[in-house]
Design brief:
alpha/beta; nine-stranded mixed beta sheet; 31% strand
């Protein structure tokens, strides 16, 4: 799948290439600040990973590397946890995905001390997106933004899958 870097840059994302797990991962990066978020900044990364995870644990196994990348590439001077949190939004492009994996992605909410880790699965052949459906109190002020970032990224990837824009 070609990643439409220009399209994402035009939407306000910084685009990074990252060599992770023997593949090139495209990473979208924004650092929005909203007064409605209790005057906080959410350093956001959407990781586009072309791989079909075996199970939810294999997604969790990626977390430490994603968190490290985020810590090394943030632009803000705000210290982590003080008016600044992270949203790590890996989108695994592949498939077909097992029903168990889909259920785990839709039902498992993990929050780790000011880090919102919300994985998604994007089926390459059908364009179907699976992501968190469970609603939790934690992170509720960021929920619409996180859902929008995941959905809009998947939409752009699906629209440009056959076009080959780079």
């Amino acid at each position: 799948m070609s990643i439409p870097k220009t399209v994402f840059r035009n939407k306000g994302w910084q685009v990074h290439s990252w060599n992770y797990a023997d593949q090139e991962v495209q990473v979208l990066h924004q650092e929005p600040f909203r007064l409605s978020w209790v005057a906080t900044q959410l350093v956001t990364y959407v990781f586009i990973i072309e791989r079909t995870p075996e199970n939810y644990q294999s997604i969790l196994d990626d977390y430490a590397a994603l968190r490290e990348f985020a810590g090394q590439h943030k632009n803000t001077i705000l210290p982590f946890t003080i008016q600044c949190g992270y949203a790590l939004l890996p989108i695994y492009v592949g498939g077909p995905f097992s029903e168990e994996l889909i259920a785990d992605v839709q039902e498992t909410y993990c929050k780790r001390w000011c880090v919102f880790h919300t994985p998604a699965l994007l089926e390459r052949n059908t364009g179907k997106l699976y992501t968190l459906q469970e609603k939790s109190f934690w992170g509720c002020i960021y929920r619409d933004y996180i859902e929008s970032a995941i959905n809009e990224t998947a939409l752009v990837l699906n629209e440009n899958q056959t076009v080959g824009i780079v």
